[in-house]
Amino acid sequence: MPESSLVELVRQTASGNRRDVLLAVARLFAGRADVYSERELELFGDVIGRLLDREALADRLVVSQLVASIERTPRDLALKLAGDQAVVAAPVLEQSPVLTASDLIGLASTMGQDHLLAISRRKELPTLVSDVIVVRGNMGVHASVAANPGARLSPDSFARLAFKAKSMPGLSDALSSRPDLPHTVAESLMPFSSPQARQRLERVLALKPEISDDDIVAEVMSLIDTPRPEQTRSRAEVRALVSDIRFGRTSLEAGLRQLTAARRLTDISVFLADLALLKESYVSNVLHKVNAVGIGLVCRSLRISAEDYAALSQLRCEKLKLPISHADAMMREYSQITTTSAERALRYHRLHNAASVIAFDAI
Q1: Together in a domain, 139 and 275
Q2: How far apart are alpha carbons 357 and 111 in whole angstroms?
Q3: Which of 62-66, 165-169, 226-230, 235-239 has the highest mean pLDDT?
Q4: Could you say which of 190, 210, 230 is where a domain stops?
Q5: pLDDT at residue 362 above 70?
């Protein structure tokens, strides 16, 4: 391309033909996005982003629809559209493969109900994103996320939705159709479900419950929490190390490298939890999950360098018996998490966790 052709189109803005230029550039991008160079993609994103600010909602919607599902849409452009008015943002929020879990958490934490509804319809929705949606969403959002088989729900989100189902006709039906419905939630839904939903719930209850990842982590944590002498000494060492960091006697980087080199993954969860002011059980859970978004948020909030995160990722692959190639994917994901979005997500997690402890039955 091109770049000369694109520049020529942009020059036409001087003639007052900006709307036509915006749509022409967006269609030019959408038609051949897979063949453009990184420089050309950057240029497209910059030009379209600048032109968007000047155009009507209907034209911004056309652009959003054109670029929503394209894998090579510049991330800054996708974020700009995702933060627009709900009607413009919806196609990108629902379809864009460019938006990361961290992006979605940030958007779900601050945007309105129509934005949440669009996010709830994504083909795949990570647990951390679903948690924010369930806490902040209204009845329509709850019904949408419950009916989405690609939305992964945590035990806490299942419990919240089950509580809401008591006063929301139809929500019980949506939950009863989920293949991942926990037995305890199925039992709680039985008294106020429709006959059809009850039949589905009875089939769930008739099946032998499978052990989930969270159950395995809980079991491991129960063993870790057993007060053995060597564990007590290990925790004391880690907390002394954290104290040295807080008083400036050593650095966070040096402490993490020491624990990583010693391959002490369990102690790293104590270390990171103390420094990030998070529950040890939460950090241990995300540290031992294949999905790296949770531990990426924790590490980014502490401003852990890419080099140190890479070493930790390799250790995680070893301990979780994953191919070492997974560490590269973890690093790519980490590079997309910003410090601001990580801090916002964890601040939200702390507040949400505190509120749950104080008054879960009032939700």
Answers
A1: no
A2: 25
A3: 62-66
A4: 210
A5: no
Q: Which domain holds residue 260?
A: 213-362
Q: In sequence order, which residues have a C-beta less than 8 Å from that of residue 316 and are 6 or more positions away? A: 265, 287, 292, 295, 322, 327, 330
**pLDDT tens, position by position, 128-187:** 899 889 989 999 999 999 999 999 998 888 888 988 888 887 898 899 888 888 888 888
- Written as six digits, the tokens of 217 are 């982590």
Six token digits for residue 74:
């510049």
Paired tokens of 231: 């564990």
Q: Which of 71, 96, 121 is the C-terminal boundary of a domain?
A: 96
Domain count, the chain: 3
- How far apart CA 237 and CA 251 sit, in angstroms, is 15
